[in-house]
Amino acid sequence: MQYLIFGLVTGSILAMATVGFSMVRQTEGFLNIAHGQFLALAAFLGLLACRDLGLPVWAAALFAAITTGAVAVILSIVIFEPIRQKGALVQLFSSVGVAYVVYGTLVMVFGANLQNYPVTFGASYRVLGVEVSFGEIAIIATAAVSILALHLFLTKTSAGVSIRAVAGNPDLARVRGISTRSVSYQVWFVAGFLAGLAGVMIGIIGAVGPELGWQNIILILAAAVLGGLGSTYGVIVASLMLGLAMDLSSLLIPTSYRTVVAFVALIIVLLVRPSGLFSVRQRKQAA
Fold first, then answer.
1. The domain containing residue 57 runs over which residues?
2. Which run of H or E residues covers position 237?
3. Global pTM?
4. Residue 202 located in a structural domain
5. 195 pLDDT exceeds 70?
């Protein structure tokens, strides 16, 4: 049961990191490899705010998430918007270049050494024989609230409806008078904000280093493909499943093989359902 808690924590963080990646894929039409660096940027910003500015961890996380969301919007305006008409492949390779630039900047500013947040997981509680720390509860609760808030935003607000319309059919949405540019900015901010929260949480439970972005973009890609690139809610479920699979596998194999487990699961699923477990496109074609 203890590993189940670890898996829920891992899956919750991965879900927050992946859902924004999936939204950008749906609305912008390309895989943003620089998304992983949003996590690394936020982890360092949160560390800076918490350690050097003395902010409480929740305020540091909020500061890092908002700043990362703003950076994501700026990058979309400066880099990705001018090359949108050149196609998804150009945007994909441009995102790789952006990732290396952000990575190099982080190394230059913060250094290459691993650093730790000056926080602890707090008191531990025993529930049904399982020891759960306050920090683990906070991470799972934050992920749940964030995903619920995103669901309400997408389904109950006019901005959310516009995002769903652009994701479903951008040409039709444009004809109906929806500003695709405004929708794009909103999606980039949400993606950066959620990635920022995930990055801070990864830094809190582990360590902060410039390699954090490269390490996690692989898992984000795996979760996105596993859930289906056209399904926002599918990638959330797939992220939780992947987190549970990686941590529960520690009962049988060394923890150093956690990432291998993720890719074995991905390969098996792709052999059976090439478009992912919860692909919207596949369901539409079947209908």
1. 2-210
2. helix 232-248
3. 0.87
4. yes
5. yes
